[in-house]
Amino acid sequence: DSVCKGIEAQTEINILNEAVSKLDEREQRIMRLRFGLDGNREYTQKEVADLLGISQSYISRLEKKILHRLKRDIESLLWVFKPPFSALRGEGVGIFLWARIRSARC
């Protein structure tokens, strides 16, 4: 069971990384900063906005758009790979991002 959970978590990480890699550079940077995808801390929208020199409200709009796109791309990848989806049980990396993607309304 723990071997399966490890495989599931790694598969989810791979799918997330694949979907994020399809974003443009700025979108990738926003997601990596906001959700700590590279093992770094999670930045607030305000902190990301300050780093990129744009408004917090624009970061919010971009984030919403990116999350919708990631949800669509991940659903396409899941359709191909069909792995068990355990991320919301607290395993793997980017759990908050997985939850946000799954709840995004398209």
Structure description:
There is one protein chain. This protein has 106 residues and is mainly α. Helices cover 70% and strands 0% of the residues. Helix 1 (2-21) packs across helix 4 and helix 3 crosses helix 4. It is globular, with a radius of gyration of 14 Å. The chain starts with a helix and ends with a helix. The model is unreliable at 85-93 (pLDDT under 50).
Q: Which geometry do the CA atoms define? A: globular
Please, how many helices? Answer: 5
Give the CA-CA distance, first to last residue: 34 Å
Order of helices and strands: HHHHH
Q: What structural category characterises the helix and strand content?
A: mainly alpha
Biggest β-sheet strands, sense, barrel: none
Quick check: average pLDDT?
A: 80
**Helical percentage:** 55-70%
SSE topology sketch:
Layout: H1 2-21, H2 25-35, H3 45-52, H4 56-81, H5 95-103
Helix pairs in contact: 1-4, 3-4, 4-5
Summed up, what is this model?
This protein is mainly α and 106 residues long.
Output the keywords:
106 residues, mainly alpha, 5 helices
